[in-house]
């Protein structure tokens, strides 16, 4: 969790630097978003858990991490003006929307010990879905 928060704060700082046209903002943005996507993709089961691996579905965590990392990379491509950004953002927005619906349905059906786990998945999927949709709509 601390790694995720630190990388998110670094991304916000790099976004402010990029808006101010300060040198080094692009490198910081690429570094923070790429590391965040790499944390989500192979280690989604760790970052989405409550550190109690008995109370989670590891397959769901890996799938969520995989699809949310696509949304993060799409946002990175769009902010850096790299080719292929719109295709990644469309895929990332659609999958984040679908994952939000799935996480909400799982949250409703979950037992009390799993509610916090699915709430975290729902929060991450909705935030990244909103950011990827905003990035897609901005020219």
From TrEMBL:
Top-level taxon: Bacteria
Annotated keywords: Membrane, Transmembrane, Transmembrane helix
InterPro entries: GldL-like_N
Record-annotated membrane-spanning stretches: 31-48, 60-81, 87-107, 121-138
Domain Gliding motility protein GldL-like N-terminal: 63-120
Protein name: Gliding motility protein GldL-like N-terminal domain-containing protein
Organism: Flavobacterium celericrescens
């Amino acid at each position: 969790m601390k790694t995720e928060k630190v990388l998110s704060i670094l991304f916000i700082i790099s976004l402010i630097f990029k808006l101010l046209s300060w040198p080094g903002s692009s490198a910081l943005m690429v570094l923070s978003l790429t590391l965040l996507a790499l944390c989500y993709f192979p280690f989604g089961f760790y970052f989405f858990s409550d550190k109690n691996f008995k109370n989670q579905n590891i397959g769901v965590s890996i799938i969520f991490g995989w699809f949310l990392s696509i949304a993060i990379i799409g946002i990175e491509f769009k902010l850096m003006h790299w080719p292929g950004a719109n295709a990644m953002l469309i895929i990332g927005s659609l999958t984040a929307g679908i994952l939000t619906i799935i996480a909400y349905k799982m949250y409703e059906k979950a037992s009390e010990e799993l509610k916090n786990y699915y709430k975290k998945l729902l929060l991450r999927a909705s935030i990244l879905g909103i950011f990827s949709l905003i990035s897609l709509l901005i020219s």
